[in-house]
Amino acid sequence: MPFSVGLREHQVAEKGIPVRTGHFQFRSLGKSHTIGEIEGFIKVISDAETDRVLGVHIIGPHASELIHEAALAVRMKLKTKDIAETIHAHPTLAEVLMEAAADVHGHAIHTMKQ
Which residue in the list 90, 105, 107, 110 is annotated as catalytic? Predict the structure, then answer.
């Protein structure tokens, strides 16, 4: 089941805000493989000028338990770099948000090569 918080990408565009996005697939996480749930992804939407998190969408395992960190990021007007630079326990599914936030700037480290 999908969960989201904040704005969708088209809503940000309608407001005329320059946008940057980061994506990350659950299949790139070791934890997803150990629990046998590799389908799904996360998308982080941020203001390209301020780096502020404007929205997050999660479709994947335990999304209802992962959306809370994203809700806090939107509420507290955090930057994607704030999330990316915060230590996340490993191996956990919560790493998906850290990696997607890092991907906004092309710095995700566990992205699978295709």
Answer: 90
